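Reopening this ticket.

The earlier resolution said the output was attached, but the attachment link was broken on my side. Pasting everything inline this time so it's all in one place.
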Amino acid sequence: PTKFHNILEELARSGQLLCHLTQNIDCMEQRLPNLEACTIRLYGQINQARCQKCNWVCEFAPHLFRGSNLPDCRNCIERSQARTSRGMRALRLGRLRPDVLLYGDTCHEVEIVKATEVRLVKSPDLVIVAGTRLQVLGARSITERFCRAGGTTIWISKENPSPKLRPLFDYILEDDCDVVVGNYVRVEALFLACAKCNQTPLVV
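Inline output:
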């Protein structure tokens, strides 16, 4: 985990972190239990597989994906066998694939919307958008909703936000996330703002 991850872990441990939305699929947060409990992954996670038919999720097993064909879903197999044992027709089996969003795929939108709506109801006091350019529509639209929820908004990235997004942010720190948290003066100013809040809610 990076320095920035560790800062988020501290916020989560203290109960100040309401939600952590991430576009990353590397599951780095799983090494930090408090941060993991606050994390919603927009584009899936590389350490699990999902059935394209029944949506069943299991641990990713590399040996199953060595051939050219995707493996059959174990849950579909068991359900189909249960039906045939009762004299019913077999089910069409789904295929497993790594549970990550590829270009052209649709995200698990219903799950994500439900999870984010719960946080939005709590009206976050502070929104931090970090380490992203927000070029993907889904992440951008979710971020816009949080930024308009009424709290203070901070952008941390090597690049400035686009002209369309710029009005959403009260503060812009143009630098690497770890450089920002390694700079005491900038971090002090950032977390003085956090200290004035009841909760520190969102990091993308």
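Reporter confirms the inline version is readable. The CA atoms of residues 23 and 136 lie 10 Å apart. The chain has seven helices and nine strands.
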